[in-house]
UniProtKB/TrEMBL annotation:
Domain GGDEF: 440-570
Top-tier EC class: transferase
Ranges of residues in domain PAC: 281-333
Protein name stated in the entry: Diguanylate cyclase CdgB
Top-rank taxon, per record: Bacteria
Coiled-coil segments on the chain, per record: 186-213
SMART domains, A to Z: GAF, GGDEF, PAS
Recorded GO MF terms: diguanylate cyclase activity
InterPro entries, sorted: Biofilm_reg_signaling, GAF, GAF-like_dom_sf, GGDEF_dom, Nucleotide_cyclase, PAS, PAS-assoc_C, PAS-like_dom_sf
Family matches, as Gene3D superfamilies: 3.30.450.40, 3.30.70.270, PAS domain
Xref: Pfam families: GAF (PF01590), GGDEF (PF00990), PAS (PF00989)
Length: 570
């Protein structure tokens, strides 16, 4: 750029440097400042090309501005170089103060790295300080302060005098990089302040609009909304409810302020409500209406603050999902029940059985409570336990309500004890065969209709379907409310009855068979079917298939043992 014997050149350069530094402070935005930095290198420091690489928030450097070549600018502006590659470059070559000069003899290893670069071919240098087209000169820009945080790197190329910069040129470029760092920091600060002021004004306007919008959205929302207290003695108390929620629950707003959701929720859903988190919590439960009925709703919670440091409130959105719940129950019922008879289907039967038995058989220590466990029954019951319907047996079986009734259809309470089965009471089978030993278990009655195929073949499927529907009705009428009557498929039915002894199960089979035998009228025609019952017992340690197969086998034993006249039908 100059020689030490030409001080007038230094003075001219200093004037140019002063002018381009002054231009740095006139830029209005960060983008303008970056472009001014690149233009100042070309205009004031006499380099033909200049590139400004700015550090991004993720640490990599992006080409933010370029000056001296429109072709190079279009090629590399916006491209990103990894921070590791840049740190490698700034550690190579010769250190000129904060500057880093990499001569072409060392820089050839950087020709294929992943830092965006632009260079032109040219002749080899003719003398020692002549600039080679592959020489590289970098001016790091550091933030002011002791930390020396890297803000970016100015890369320059092709000095107009074709020589390496001397001490004065190096000092001028280093000084310019320092002033550029200050200008970039100031531009960022101004930009952040301007954005903050604009954001603050917008936030204030938005807050005023939001308050009005919230009031209107809350009051006139088509679904229910409520604001409740958080914390303190009145935690959960409803402070405000909109018209939609008042209409949904049939209670005026003045009355709603006396309650919390815990006062209104269905007793069975109180646990669901208590497990619902305040922020972002969702729950589906039932709320009580004024007339004593309950409606299914979906609750969605969010926490809001009255002021920056003021009390927080719980905003709850209440959506009426009664129709959806009804539809879901209908779909679930269709999936788990037989379309013809309305009885639980095979999958639902297996699900209920699986819920009642576990993989572990009852322990010997459970004998006093549950009876004696016979390991011979693991793969099938011993002869002494094979109970089938006997027409000569007639005890006074009467349907009795369960002592403990649960929604899954089986009555049992969780038992104490150790191990992973603490929540489960083992199902055991009576051990006395036809003699009732006092043990109560889960009886599995497998029912197969006799003569049904001949009715189907003779009168058609319409008559056969009507017979199946009537048999299902008679079976359901003959059992207790908590018992399960399921259609396994075809003309096979299964009855699950818990809490029965051997005599109770045999009497139940007799009663159900007697209920099926009477004629069934279909389209003015009387048809009759018989029924064969096999009695099995569900016992922990058995699989569902083993339980059903056991009852099925006993049904066939009973079917073969009865005289043909007793099985004739149609």
């Amino acid at each position: 750029m100059e020689t030490e014997s030409e001080p007038y050149v230094r003075l001219s350069t200093l004037r140019q440097l002063h002018q381009v530094v002054a231009d740095l402070n006139t830029a209005r935005s960060l983008a303008d400042t970056l472009q001014t930095v690149a233009d100042g290198v070309v205009a004031g420091l006499n380099y033909e090309l200049a590139c400004v690489n700015l550090v991004r928030p993720d640490g990599d450097l992006v080409v933010a501005a370029f000056a001296g070549s429109s072709a190079a600018e279009a090629l590399i502006t916006g491209r990103v170089g990894p921070r590791e590659s840049w740190e490698r470059r700034l550690a190579m070559g010769v250190a000129w103060g904060d500057l880093r000069f990499i001569p072409h003899t060392e820089g050839w290893v950087l020709m294929e790295d992943d830092v965006p670069q632009w260079h032109t071919d040219g002749p080899a240098p003719r003398f020692e300080d002549e600039w080679h087209p592959h020489d590289r000169l970098y001016a790091p820009m550091y933030a002011s302060g002791s930390g020396r945080e890297l803000l970016g790197v100015i890369s320059v190329d092709r000095p107009r005098n074709g020589r390496h910069p001397g001490p004065w040129g190096q000092e001028a470029l280093q000084m310019y990089a320092s002033q550029s760092a200050i200008a970039i920091s100031n531009a960022r600060l101004r930009s952040n302040m301007q954005r903050a002021l604009v954001r603050l004004e917008r936030e204030q306007q938005a807050l005023r609009a939001s308050e009005e919008s919230f009031r209107q959205a809350f009051e006139y929302a088509p679904s229910g909304m409520a604001i409740a207290e958080m914390g303190g003695d009145q935690h959960g108390r409803l402070l405000r409810t909109n018209d939609a929620l008042c209409r949904l629950l049939g209670r005026p707003a003045s009355v709603m302020r006396r309650y919390s959701f815990a006062d209104l929720v269905h007793p069975e859903d109180i646990g669901t409500l208590l497990r619902t988190s305040a922020e972002g919590g969702r729950a589906e439960l039932r709320l009580g209406r004024r007339d004593g009925t309950y409606v299914w709703v979906s609750l969605r919670n969010s926490v809001v603050a009255d002021t920056a440091d003021g009390p927080r409130f719980l905003l709850t959105h209440v959506e009426d999902i009664e129709e959806r719940k009804r539809h879901e129950l209908q779909l679930a019922h269709r999936a788990s029940h037989d379309a013809l008879t309305g009885l639980p289907n095979s999958a639902e039967l297996r699900s209920r059985l699986s819920a009642r038995i576990c993989e572990r058989p009852s322990a010997p220590g459970d004998e006093a409570a549950y009876g004696t466990y016979d390991s011979a029954r693991d793969g099938g019951y011993a002869t002494g336990h094979e109970a089938s319907y006997d027409t000569s047996y007639d005890s006074g079986y009467e349907p009795q309500p369960y002592e403990h009734e649960h929604e899954h259809g089986f009555g049992f309470e969780p038992a104490g004890g150790a191990g992973p089965y603490d929540h489960h009471v083992h199902a055991v089978a009576p051990t006395g065969g036809q003699v009732d030993d006092g043990t109560k278990g889960l009886a599995v009655l497998f029912c197969d209709l006799d003569g049904f195929k001949s009715i189907n073949d003779r009168f058609g499927h319409h008559t056969g379907d009507a017979v199946l529907i009537e048999v299902a009705r008679r079976l359901t009428t003959g059992v207790r409310d908590g018992d399960t009557v399921a259609r396994l498929g075809g003309d096979e039915f299964v009855v699950l009855a818990d809490g029965l002894g051997s005599a109770d199960a045999a009497d139940l089979a007799l009663r159900l068979r007697n209920a099926i035998i009477p004629p069934i009228r279909v389209d003015g025609r009387a048809v009759r079917v018989g029924a064969s019952f096999g009695i099995g017992w569900a016992e922990c340690g058995m699989t569902v298939e083993e339980v059903l197969n056991s009852a099925d086998q006993r049904m066939y034993v009973e079917k073969r043992s009865r005289a043909k006249v007793h099985r004739r039908a149609g």
